[in-house]
């Protein structure tokens, strides 16, 4: 199978995260070596037609580290893996690569009531022609505001309404771009939480994962820095967007929408948020939020300039005094009685 080893390492990384953050409940299991996982590879572009001769990777995660093995589909698109450890603490993942796109199953686990296991892999014909992608929704949450820093989290829904997997358009590098995610100017410390393999560019992110038919969610976080006590966050719309909503904690700042309307406030994780939003946004449109009443953060340069001007003024005044004393001008720093005394100590004639 094309790219089997890189794909195995990718799935291993995903499963390590999953297993690290989720607890596995102990349950009765079938005897070790008695497990079977089978299924079919089907072509979703051609009405679930079986795909023959397709290599399928089975990756096992558990004690002892990842172990992978490969099977090939028969004329009916069927594959099967036998002799597997049927332990509920072990997770299995199926994967295949078809026309330069990877397709991965959800993690599979055996239990007393679930053996053998069956899972089909549905693949699609690939295309480099950009389909009519859309964001059904885009949710922006301003999570925290500290002096000079706004912490933002976004959830973007990417939908491909066609029956072909979009591989992306060339960028002049070794990767293709499928989805562009413009971010507010000045966004930094961008982190992808799930759903994308990004390459960062000056105005946001480029996603390089193929877009399969259906819906994929991309979650990310970033920071926007500001000076003073106000800031503006602007988003450019790259694909048609069903709705865009911005949530701001009620007590953090005052918000004014540009291209966004006030909506009923919402509650997230027990906290009330002010909400601004818009619907049916066309590609090429910009929307923004103006925030005021933020925790003040003034530029260190401003303080330095003020201090420098003070020193300049003080230095100028001091120089004037010294110069006047040297010139012996009465009323400008010289003693009038001293100025009336001649070189010999007697009053001048």
Write up what this structure looks like.
- The chain has 349 residues and is mainly beta.
- The chain folds into three domains: 4-123, Immunoglobulins (Immunoglobulin-like), CATH 2.60.40; 134-297, Immunoglobulin-like, CATH 2.60.40; 301-339.
- Helices cover 14% and strands 48% of the residues.
- The protein is built from three helices and 26 strands.
- The chain has a seven-stranded mixed sheet with strand order 17-20-12-11-22-25-24, with no helix packed on it. Strands 1, 2, 5, 8 and 9 form a five-stranded mixed sheet that branches.
- Strand 1 (35-43) and strand 2 (49-50) form a beta hairpin.
- The protein starts with a helix and ends in a 10-residue tail after the last helix.
CATH class of the largest domain: Mainly Beta
Multimerization state: single chain
Low-confidence stretches: 1-6, 8-30, 330-349
The helix/strand order is HEEEEEEEEEEEEEEEEEEEEEEEEEEHH
Helix content: 10-25%
- Strand order, largest beta sheet: 17-20-12-11-22-25-24
SSE-based structural type: mainly beta
Shape: elongated
Question: What CATH architecture of the largest domain would you give?
Answer: Sandwich
Average pLDDT rating: 81
CATH topology of the largest domain: Immunoglobulin-like
């Amino acid at each position: 199978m094309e790219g089997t080893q890189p794909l195995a390492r990718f799935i291993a990384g995903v499963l390590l995260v999953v297993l690290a953050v989720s607890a596995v409940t102990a349950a009765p299991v079938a005897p070790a070596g008695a497990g079977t996982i089978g299924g079919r590879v089907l072509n979703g572009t051609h009405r679930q037609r079986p795909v023959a001769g397709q290599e399928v990777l089975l990756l096992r995660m558990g004690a002892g580290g990842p172990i992978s093995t490969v099977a090939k589909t028969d004329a009916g698109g069927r594959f099967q893996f036998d002799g597997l450890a049927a332990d509920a603490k072990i997770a299995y993942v199926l994967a295949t690569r078809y026309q330069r796109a990877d397709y991965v199953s959800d993690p599979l686990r055996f239990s007393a009531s679930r053996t053998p296991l069956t899972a089909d892999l549905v693949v699609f014909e690939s295309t480099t022609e950009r389909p009519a992608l859309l964001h059904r929704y885009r949710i922006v949450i301003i999570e925290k505001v500290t002096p000079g820093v706004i912490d933002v989290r976004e959830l973007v829904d990417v939908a491909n309404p066609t029956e072909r997997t979009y591989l992306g358009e060339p960028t002049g590098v070794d990767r293709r771009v499928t989805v562009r995610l413009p971010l507010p100017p000045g966004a930094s410390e961008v982190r992808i939480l799930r759903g994308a393999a990004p390459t960062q560019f000056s105005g946001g992110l480029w996603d390089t994962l193929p877009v399969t038919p259906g819906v994929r969610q991309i979650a990310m976080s970033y920071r926007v820095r500001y000076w003073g006590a106000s800031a503006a966050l602007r988003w450019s719309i790259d694909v048609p967007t069903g709705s865009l909503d911005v949530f701001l904690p009620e007590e953090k700042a005052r918000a004014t929408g540009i291209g966004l309307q006030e909506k009923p406030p919402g509650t997230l994780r027990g906290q009330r948020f002010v909400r601004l939003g818009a619907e049916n946004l066309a590609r090429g449109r910009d929307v923004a939020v103006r925030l005021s009443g933020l925790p003040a953060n003034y530029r260190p340069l401003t303080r330095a300039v003020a201090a420098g001007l003070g020193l300049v003024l003080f230095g100028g005044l001091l120089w004037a005094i010294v110069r006047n004393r040297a010139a012996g001008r009465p009323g400008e720093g010289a003693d009038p009685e001293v100025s009336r005394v001649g070189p010999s100590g007697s009053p001048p004639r």
